[in-house]
Amino acid sequence: MSDKDLRLNDEGASVSLSVDVALDVPLWSTFSYLTDRPLSRGQRVLVPFGARRMCGVVTKSHNENKVYAFSIKCVDDVFDDLPPLPDDVLDLVEFAAHYYHHPYGQTLFTALPTALREPRAVRLPDRRVWRLTAAGRAADVAPRHKVRHALWQALAERDLTPEAVRAVAAGSGAILKDWLARGWVARADVAAPSLKVEGAVPLNAAQREAYEAILAGEAPHKPWLLHGVTGSGKTEVYLQLIEQVLAAGRQVLVLVPEINLTPQLIARFTHRFPQTPMAALHSNVADGERLHAWVDAWQGRARIVIGTRLAVFTPLPQLGMVIVDEEHDGSFKQQDGLRYHARDLAVWRAHRAAVPIVLGSATPCLETLANVDAGRYRRLVLAERAHEAASLPDVRLLDIRRAKRSEGLTDEVLAALAERVRKRELSLVYINRRGFAPVVACTECGWLSGCPRCSAKLVVHLLARKLRCHHCGWEEAVPHACPDCGNPDIKPLGEGTQRLEAALSRALPSARILRIDRDTTQRREAWDDIYRQVHAGEVDILVGTQMLAKGHDFGALSLVVILNADAALYSADFRAGERLFAQLTQVAGRAGRADRPGEVLLQTQWPDHPLFRALAAHDFDRYAAELLQERRLLGFPPACFQAQLRADAPSLAEANAFLLGVRDALAPQAEAAGVALAGPAPALMVKLANRERAQLVLESPRRAALHHVLDYLTDWLPSQPVARTLRWSLDVDPQDT
Ligand code: ADP
Ligand code: ZN
Ligand code: ZN
Questions:
Q1: How confident is the model over 559-610, as pLDDT tens digits?
Q2: Which of 48-57, 439-448, 493-502 has the highest mean pLDDT?
Q3: Are 564 and 496 in contact (CB under 8 A)?
Q4: How far is the CA of 596 from the centre of ligand 1 (A)?
């Protein structure tokens, strides 16, 4: 190592300290830089990287004289705008990078608010208040000077926030600066507001039991599954638990699915704790606001953090409890970049912080139920609706194979809707779009547009009037009649909301119909309008997709109609049934929430399907047990643990060749560890943006064995030349297979 390599810093002093720095680059290592002053883990720095200057985060500092075999550059700047990033976040990031086998730097930068990823200092508004000191009270502040006097008087009465200062008079800022120098005023943190609780109701017996069990738990806490039917009062239990945590002076993290984080949910929380500072974090929060919420949580000002999956990375120095509502919801899993599952990270985080975590759901996912079976989680049950008068809705299955239908709606459904319209009661018509692929089917014989070359279904492309296979690329014209029975009445399964709206207004001319889908809710105020209309009684029938399923409180729904549920049963995804059940339970749960029992009508070709039978009987447990049994027989998760290596290349052949190479290289390791390798196989959606995709699945009944092989894989693969010629990614615990 030459003298030149051991660089001198600008002042010419010899530099002997060095740090490891994480950068937002797709490389697995951290990078070494020299520094002229000691830096701590979590400090944001500016460093040269190639031709660029990037924001980095110190992961480790070396105080001894470390000898480097290569030339090493210096840290350019240290951002002192914030203290070093807190340990709770850095620890979680480290775990996530390790568990998801993702580059550490990229994992860390995923966890940070955008503003902290940029190579510049952030400017945070000073939230501290101005407070008069004893010297200030005794000071002579020139009573004849109007502004000074007004300011002094205001301060003598109470602490002033920056906004309050500006309100006193222009020019107050300069005066305060002067007084600060004289020691007459000081900056102080706002005193924590007292805990005020409004509108709590006495818990019923089942709620109380759950509540007490959770509060009585001792570290190390096992995660709690709060399994309660829709409307059983899970949220009320969360709120009362949160009250206890806040009273103990600690913070709460509440994770909810994106679709549930509605203004109404926030309102329910703020109504309950009117003086408690809360931070809401979801993808629609602007970058600046997000940073402030993040820092507020970090510095302990925000006492409740409620947010979607990304909120799991929020620093919470006084974390007292974690709640994950609708823990089964697919939106907790990130589908690109760092493919993390926020629920699973939340469980780790709660364990690490030695605080309780509550996973709530009416339809827990099978992974969670398996954890209950294995004794890792404990289950608490709320079997009935919380309102005394409210009972679960009456679910009826309408067999559409023989029923006469117009525009897909049976006479029975139309009659039921007409009756509600006459009585001016609110109905909901729900079209399932989950697992939705517009395949063509015959209404007579049940023929489905299958691919002649492979087992996939052909998907309709209406504009091109073509049927296409997304597996193998086969293409044909849309037939004019059923190839099997000659029936001319063949149509795409799965009506769109617009078509349905039109059909309904033809069939029920006097009904006032409101369509809710992505198109009609684009505008920011759209939901406000929708609520106003619904609550003013201006709507008879709501038509929409899963946007309507949960979270929104439309008051009492008298009737819920479910269409096109069958489409999900054609899915190639082994989780489709589980998801459909959860989805339909949510929708059905919208019926009869107040003092009236609701009615649910579900049109299906398979009224005897165990899924629909269980739904009608409100028997989730039995259906879940059947599904679990099936998964164990087939060796699917949760009976095994999976990881997926995906590759995309200009051609499928290239992607396959790459994965085959990986497979061969892994085979000895995998075999020794008891990890099975399946594939490579083309992805469900093979072609995307002119690239073709394939995947290799690794699976094992033992999680540790799987991760052992993944360690080997991620050690070896990035150094292979071929890994740089195409795109690949690793998905641990994939949700879409
Ligand atoms: P979930 O979260 O399980 O869907 P909620 O907590 O939203 O259930 O409760 C459903 C309804 O029942 C709400 O209107 C809520 O105010 C009411 N509720 C909850 N618990 C009670 C209780 N103990 N007594 C009376 N009403 C309750
Ligand atoms: Zn036919
Ligand atoms: Zn095909």
A1: 999 987 887 777 667 888 898 899 888 888 888 766 677 899 999 988 999 9
A2: 48-57
A3: no
A4: 15
**% of the chain with per-residue pLDDT over 90:** 46
> What is the number of the ligand closest to the CA of 388?
1
User: Could you tell me if 342 and 309 are in contact, meaning their C-beta atoms sit under 8 angstroms apart?
Assistant: yes
pLDDT over 80 (residue 229): yes
Residue 225 bridge partners (DSSP): 359, 379
Nearest to 94 by CA among 82, 103, 85, 81: 103
The ligand 1 atom nearest the CA atom of 228: 3
pLDDT of the residue at 245: 97
Ligand 1 site residues (CB inside 6 A) read 201-204, 207, 228, 230-236, 386-387
CA dist 353 and 347 (Å) reads 10
Of 449, 493, 454, give the one whose Cα is nearest residue 473: 454
**Separation of 473 CA from ligand 3 center, angstroms?**
6
Q: What is d(CA 279, CA 524) in angstroms, rounded to the nearest whole number?
A: 20
CA-nearest residue, atom 21 of ligand 1: 386
Task: Give the Cα separation of 672 and 670 in Å (integer).
Answer: 5
HEC secondary structure over 485-528: CCCCCEEECCCCHHHHHHHHHHHCCCCCEEEECCCCCCCCCHHH
Integer Cα distance of 520 and 502 in angstroms: 15
Q: Tell me: pLDDT of 470 over 90.
A: no
Ligand minimally distant from the alpha carbon of residue 551: 1
- Segment 530-554 mean pLDDT: 80
Q: CA–CA distance from 94 to each of 22, 81, 277, 658 (Å)? A: 11, 24, 29, 29
pLDDT of residue 473: 64
